Amino acid sequence: MSEVKGTPADLREQNPVLGDRREQMFPRLTDVQIARLRPLGRERDFRSGDLIFEQGQNDVPFYVILEGTLAVVHPKRGEPDQLIVVHEAKQFSGEMALLAGRRSLVVGRAQGDLKVLEFGPAEFRSLIQNDAELSELLMRAFILRRAMLISSHLGEVVMVGSRHSASTLRLQEFLTRNGQPYDYQDVERDPEAQRILDRFHLGLDDVPVLVCRGEKVLKNPTNAEVAECLGLNVSIDELAVRDVIVIGAGPAGLSAAVYAGSEGLSVLVVEANAPGGQAGSSSMIENYLGFPTGISGEKLAGLAFNQAEKFGAEITIARIAEGLRCERRPYQLEVADGVTVSGRTVVIASGAEYRKPEIDGLAKFEGVGVYYGASHLEALRCEGEELVIVGGGNSAGQAAVFLAQTASQVTVMVRGAALAESMSRYLIQRIDKTPNIRVRTRTQIVALGGEGHLERVTCVDDATGERQTHDVRHVFMMTGAKPNTDWLRRCVTLDEKGFVKTGADLTADELLAAKWPLARRPYLLETSLPGIFAVGDVRSESVKRVAAAVGEGSTCIQLVHRVLAEGH
């Protein structure tokens, strides 16, 4: 057995996530629960030191320990392994990678002679979907174990990056929002960063660099290359015809996936970046039903993603929808890399993104002073500094309150006469009571400047025409919404702003032009083509709120059932 450093107690002291929730993270099954499990698994014996599963292994079985102990460690290149936990009798192995059949992040070894119940992927999937009591216990443990791995940086990726690199922030956001643990080394702050670069004969011009499993080196990779390196996507079966294909894994798309999967439909979700969509970058959502203390968009999206996987939804990450073949059914979605998938119905949940205003120098500073989301990653870059938030919607208000906790001064800049025109009252009150937030109305930024990183902004007062330049290194753009519909290639009817029209909003003339083939009119969320639906922010006249998007995603699946029953 390889050398191991540390103990579970050491890890617990280093990691507050373990804390009081250790019993939920590593519970013991009862005799009754184990008796219920026995018919589903098979008994296996291992000898002391046997490798039970290894880092990078796909489709790792689920193990319930009957006798002996199973040590779970995190391998370290050139160093002793980091001990995470020792599972004893009546405990079980696994974390979120097990649920989706993704690669294991850790190694399991028999510590002494070991007897287990082993469950293959199909048996485990059946267990998690059909036994409510054990499903709750396992899901809670798996989610907490993944949170522990993330907060302890115990993954299979080491990133070397720079605070002055836009690509570094992009990759950090991609890994974080996809729930991937990683160890980050900053070239300006961490001595280990240079040692890693030297080991792989790399220079500062190669940054950001990702090292996967201590061997594969990626220089400034695309998100798709990172997803491939981490094994986030299983291969897509292009011959299968799914009941429903969902484009986008924001709140609406994830809701549709959860309800479709839970109701026995075969569902494939295609997501271009990470779960959560625009909402996933929200620091705190306080008006979502059932979360009186609020919940971050990232956490809400992560939990919804876990639910979708629990019910068997296939979810691909960093795969871009490039076109929809809508001339005949089943419909075909063209995905990047030449992949084509077929579905009897389609749910368009591709969302919207902040519109980029026409400002001199904007593109030059994206990721190095100009941001389109306000997560803790951006907050770290702005700590102790002055910043500007452009926009008057709820996302801007949530960002202002969040960033004010660490920034020296936050200025909210809007073109309108007051925040009340577009922001919820509770956020306005919170802003009014926060001393380091100020609001400038009827004001807009007209130019940005700096060398390598944003250093100054020039704004104009629309009421007086006065122009002023301020030393500001961070600007958050949260203005308007541009729908992600370019890939649709005129398959369905759009409104004048590019949002998808549905249901009663489609006029008789529009349906005639679209050659609507049925005697009935489109259902509530159905587009100008039968069996193609649009939900969430991408839909014309939708309420741009997380709760509304979730409601539309669930409602849509009831309509999908109707269409499938019609059998056209």
CATH architecture annotation name of the largest domain: 3-Layer(bba) Sandwich
The CATH topology of the largest domain is given as FAD/NAD(P)-binding domain
User: Could you give the count of β-strands?
Assistant: 27
Strand content: 15-25%
Calculate the mean pLDDT score and round it.
Answer: 93
- Integer count of domains: 4
- Spell out the CATH superfamily of the largest domain: FAD/NAD(P)-binding domain
Q: In words, what does this structure look like?
A:
With 568 residues, the protein is an alpha/beta fold. It folds into four domains: 4-151, Jelly Rolls (Sandwich), CATH 2.60.120.10; 157-230, Glutaredoxin; 241-353 and 482-566, FAD/NAD(P)-binding domain; 363-477, FAD/NAD(P)-binding domain, CATH 3.50.50. The chain is built from 16 helices and 27 strands. Strands 11, 12, 13, 14, 15, 16 and 27 form a seven-stranded mixed beta sheet that branches. Strands 1, 2, 3, 4, 5 and 6 form a six-stranded mixed beta sheet that branches. The protein has a five-stranded parallel beta sheet with strand order 18-25-19-20-21, covered by helices on one side. Strand 15 (331-335) and strand 16 form a beta hairpin. Helix 10 (251-262) crosses helix 16. The longest helix is centred in the C-terminal third of the chain and has 21 residues, at 546-566. It is globular and about 80 Å long. It starts with a strand and ends with a helix. The mean pLDDT is 93.
